[in-house]
Amino acid sequence: MNGAENNATVSTPDLASTAQSASAARRAVEPDAWAAFSAHWPEYLMEAGLLGAFMVSACIFGVLFRFPQSPVVRAVPSEFLQHLLGGIAMGLTALSIFYSPWGKQSGAHINPSVTLAFLRLGRIKSYDALFYIGAQFAGGVAGVLIAWALLGGRLAQDPPRFVVTAPGMGAGSAFAAEIAISAVLMFVVLSVSSSRFSSYTGVCAGALVAIYIALEAPLSGMSMNPARTLGSALVAGDATGLWIYFTAPPLGMFLAATVHRRISSAVGCAKLYHAPDVHCIFCQE
After folding, report:
1. In Å, how far from its chain's centre is CA 264?
2. Is residue 119 situated within a structural domain?
3. Is the omega angle on the peptide bond into residue 13 within 30 degrees of 0, that is, cis?
4. Which domain holds residue 133?
5. CA-to-CA distance for 12 and 250, rounded, in angstroms?
6. Cα torsion 165, 171, 175, 177: sign
7. pTM
8. Count of beta carbons in the 10 Å neighbourhood of residue 280
9. Do residues 105 and 270 make contact, with C-beta atoms less than 8 angstroms apart?
10. Is the dihedral of CA 86, 91, 185, 62 positive or negative?
11. N or C: which end of the chain has fewer CB within 10 A?
12. Residue 30 confidence (pLDDT) above 80
């Protein structure tokens, strides 16, 4: 009995000490909100700026390829060709963002769904993910407002009506399509970025954006991005199908991250392109 009591007496402080050590280790790895913001606020602003630039570009090309009085629309009346041209334009926009100086530093997530997928894989800390997502939503709204100031009523007219994303063939089909395109995009990003072809990750992602806009947009509106959709929806005052774009893209990318983790042991970074000469807040390099 005395031996058992002595063992219990000795083990209790050991357990408490172990728990305290584990807690301290977690705090050392996971900074508090203010520490994260103080260290990484430039990257947060870059995420806002990059999605803002993407939305300005989307609005400009939306007017160019969809506004009825646009010279391009008059010259190219085919809606398929308009979508094709828009896809090429936005694919090149995405490509330029991914490989821009800001894109190389922040990782060019520009999408809460991408950030959440990297969080699922443990490649980004929770407070960084929180601030990234907040910045992305702010950037999406700011981008549409800036474009409205530049383009005026042409952007407000339907089409392009602030380039809102809306289901084209029913909510169920749009939901399934958004899951599918989001999952494919994220799986490609994770697979290519952890391979010897990692420098081409942005090219693959940009190509998928172009293909999706050209071919899939009539089905679901081609969002994959809650922040992109909310930016247009808020300014247009149109919440049609908003639940689809807040649930399907994160779910699709979360599924892709889960599948990739199970079939691959590759350890990667939370950047689309990890440039060796650019500081990385995820790898602390």
Report:
1. 22
2. yes
3. no
4. 37-263
5. 43
6. negative
7. 0.87
8. 18
9. no
10. negative
11. N
12. no
Structure tokens at 33: 């909100």
The answer to whether residue 2 sits within a structural domain is: no
Q: Nearest-CA neighbor of 209 among 58, 91, 118, 82?
A: 91
CB-CB contact of 263 with 87 (8 Å): no
The per-residue pLDDT for range 82-123, each reduced to its tens digit, is 999 999 999 999 999 999 999 999 999 999 999 999 999 999
Q: Residue type at 204?
A: C
CATH code: domain of residue 124: 1.20.1080.10
Q: Distance of alpha carbon 241 from its chain centroid, rounded? A: 19
Q: Are 73 and 174 in contact (CB under 8 A)?
A: no
Amino acid (one-letter) located at 85: L
Number of domain units in the chain: 1
Could you tell me which of 138, 156, 165, 149 has the C-alpha nearest to residue 227?
Answer: 138
Q: Which two tokens stand for residue 125?
A: 């800390």
Q: Could you write out the DSSP letters of every residue in 116-151?
A: HHHHHTT-S-HHHHHHHHHHHHHHHHHHHHHHHHHH
Rg over CA atoms, the chain: 22
- For residue 127, how many other CB atoms are within 10 A of its CB? 18
Give dist(CA 268, CA 153) in Å, integer. Answer: 45
Quick check: is 73 in a domain? yes
Relative orientation angle of helices 201-211 and 171-193, to the nearest 10 degrees: 160
Q: Which of 281, 284, 283, 285 is nearest to 46 (CA)?
A: 281
Question: Which sign does the torsion angle of CA 116, 118, 121, 125 carry?
Answer: negative
Asked whether residue 155 is domain-assigned, the answer is yes
